[in-house]
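step 4 of 6: structure.
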Amino acid sequence: MDKNIIIKNLSKEYVMGKVIVKAVNNIDLDFEKGEFTVLAGPSGSGKTTVLNAIGGMDDPTNGKILVDNVNICELSNSEISDFRKDKLGFIFQQYNLIPVLTAFENIRFSLDIMKKLSKKEKAIKVEQIMEEMDILEYKKHRPDELSGGQQQRVAVARALVKDPEIILADEPTANLDSKTGETILQLMKRMNVEKNITFIFSSHDKRIIEFAKRVVWLEDGKIKNIENR
Amino acid sequence: MLLNLAWKNMFRHKIRTILTASTIFAGVFITLFANSLTSGITRNVINKFIHTDIGIIRILPHDLYEDMEEKYIASFSFTDNLKNNIKKTVNEEFTDIEIAERIFFPGQITNGISEIPIMFYGIDKDLEERLFKRKEFMVKGNYLGDSSKNKVIMSIKTAKLLDLKAGDFITIMGRDSDKSMNAIEVEIAGLFNTDNVKIDNNYIYMTKSLAWDFIGRESINEIIIYSNNIQKEYTVSVFNVLENKFGKEADIITWYEELHDFIDVMIMKEGTSYFVIMIIILLMAGFGIANTLIMAVYERKKEIGILYAMGLNRKNIVSLFMFEGTFIGVLGGGLGGVLAYFTSLYFSVKGFNFNIPEEMTESLNFSGGLIYTYLPLNMIIIVSFVAILTAVIASLYPAWFATRLKPAEIIRQ
């Protein structure tokens, strides 16, 4: 299988007052295309830091991250924005929808940034994914008019609509009840299979861990164990 | 995309946006309305000068205009030949012009107790009544009538200074054309109030024949070119013809040259007031918008992080906040400009009752009353544009501040 993402000697240190905290300590890890991986571990184990580093949201202190053989740590600000725009989709624990936009507009915003499709094509694509996510009836609702589960579906749709190569999901079910969380996971699993998108989760949710093909257990910023299923 | 988001962001905190836009609105409106009033006063005074006194061009005998106060004005006069040539040229070249001939000379009036310096004007009463409509400005007594041989009219202000009223007799004193002192007693036929401070404070009118009797010579030393068309371009065209033909034999003075001191003062007053008000606008609008947007950046830190995560770059984030600032500027500046335009339009027809302190009447050459406002379109565009530009500049710091945020950190927060 193709290696989609290769992480080599990744370290990330934060300075907190006079103390240097090693959030991630010399990690080597890779992800194959279409993989459904969970970065698991307790709070502070470095899961989110690894996700942010892969997404180019945080500069590592050491090491490199190759995505499709490009070291994203060496990209300029503008190039890293393009990388996120073209290849990545983010899903957050808090949904993080833009409150002034409707569900439809929130999802379309991902396509607006890409500037590849016509207005009509974008509308068709957005409606299609909303239908797949079973949220089409809420297209004119603003985030504050939606439940947590509905908002997370919109967030997932927003990440998926631009057909990214990689989805980075940071504790996506943490704020959802078990039934809604399960549904969202099923949706993502289906997208993983149908569209061969690489999914990387950070979570300590047992349901997600059970769902994953591979679980990378982190502890104190280091890889403790890798479970392949 | 960014425009749409910026537009919607503007209405997140409607009251805050409205308050910020209101400062710009108020600044633009006040600046423009103040401008329309001062422009209205300027135009009003210029109109009044032209239509009550100087016409569009004033012609004096050669070498009289410069340092006039130091000369024996009554001894200057036009030759019949020059006077007739000027009249002939004007009548041949222009169809809508009328010519008035006057004799003027300085002197004093006294009520027997005190005296004040004054400029006496001998006029062709029927012609000037028609051209300058002095009769309309009479507030007491009568205009110079048929039996007005020894009658004068003066302003109500001058009369008050000497505690005089219509029907009273006064002594006028001055030098005749031979530079000898002369004095005669005249009756005050009536009192006028033109609102032209120069006329009201300095002039007394009498018939030309009375003036000739006083100076002892039948001559004229002022020719007034009068037209209803007071456009500067038209005046220039008349001036050019006259200057070419008679420039060496006479002093030819246009209304804008005659009034240049006043116009300079008004332009300076306008310029200064605009400058001061503009500074206030810049400060109010700039601080207001910067403050609003900095608050917005703080409130939306996480959202900015999400936008970065979605693929927006720093340029996009800068644009987003600058669009927001610009919208606020356009909202306030645009509405201020539109309201100022319609307000000015209304008062340009109805007149704005403007009472000014008496001590300011001298410097403004205007004694208050109805002002017909005047607001040129370019002024609206300039002021509104400056307000919007200020909004854009004020957005720079918050926008820059937003780009300094680290996406991972703000999302984690």
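step 5 of 6: annotate
 - Chain B has a mean pLDDT of 86.
 - Chain B touches chain A through 27 residues (CB under 8 Å).
step 6 of 6: archive
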